[in-house]
């Protein structure tokens, strides 16, 4: 049984409120579990979206996400902020 390559991918974003969010880390294959464990250990929120991760993985490290991904990333950020405040988005 083969695994979906998109499912074995993780991308970290950083958003400071200025400019667009930036890709700060990427992992695929065996490194995904380590990246996710590190995020959990440091209290970094996680969201599973293999299709969005595949698109974000094409962005260079430390580069802002492209305008075409603004809406999708904004929706994820809204979910994360809402969860942090204990409410639904």
Automatic annotation (TrEMBL):
<dbReference type="Pfam" id="PF01312">
    <property type="entry name" value="Bac_export_2"/>
</dbReference>
<protein>
    <recommendedName>
        <fullName>Flagellar biosynthetic protein FlhB</fullName>
    </recommendedName>
</protein>
<keyword id="KW-0653">Protein transport</keyword>
<keyword id="KW-0966">Cell projection</keyword>
<keyword id="KW-0282">Flagellum</keyword>
<keyword id="KW-0969">Cilium</keyword>
<dbReference type="GO" id="GO:0005886">
    <property type="term" value="C:plasma membrane"/>
</dbReference>
<dbReference type="GO" id="GO:0009306">
    <property type="term" value="P:protein secretion"/>
</dbReference>
<comment type="function">
    <text>Required for formation of the rod structure in the basal body of the flagellar apparatus. Together with FliI and FliH, may constitute the export apparatus of flagellin.</text>
</comment>
<keyword id="KW-0813">Transport</keyword>
<dbReference type="InterPro" id="IPR029025">
    <property type="entry name" value="T3SS_substrate_exporter_C"/>
</dbReference>
<keyword id="KW-1006">Bacterial flagellum protein export</keyword>
<dbReference type="InterPro" id="IPR006135">
    <property type="entry name" value="T3SS_substrate_exporter"/>
</dbReference>
<comment type="similarity">
    <text>Belongs to the type III secretion exporter family.</text>
</comment>
């Amino acid at each position: 049984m083969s695994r979906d390559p998109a499912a074995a991918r993780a991308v970290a974003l950083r958003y400071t409120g200025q400019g667009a969010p930036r890709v700060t880390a990427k992992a695929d294959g065996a490194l995904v579990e380590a990246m996710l464990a590190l995020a959990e250990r440091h209290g970094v929120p996680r969201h599973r979206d293999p299709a969005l991760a595949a698109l974000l993985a094409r962005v260079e490290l430390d580069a802002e996400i492209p305008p075409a991904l603004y809406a999708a990333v904004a929706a994820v950020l809204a979910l994360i902020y809402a969860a942090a405040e204990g409410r639904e988005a």
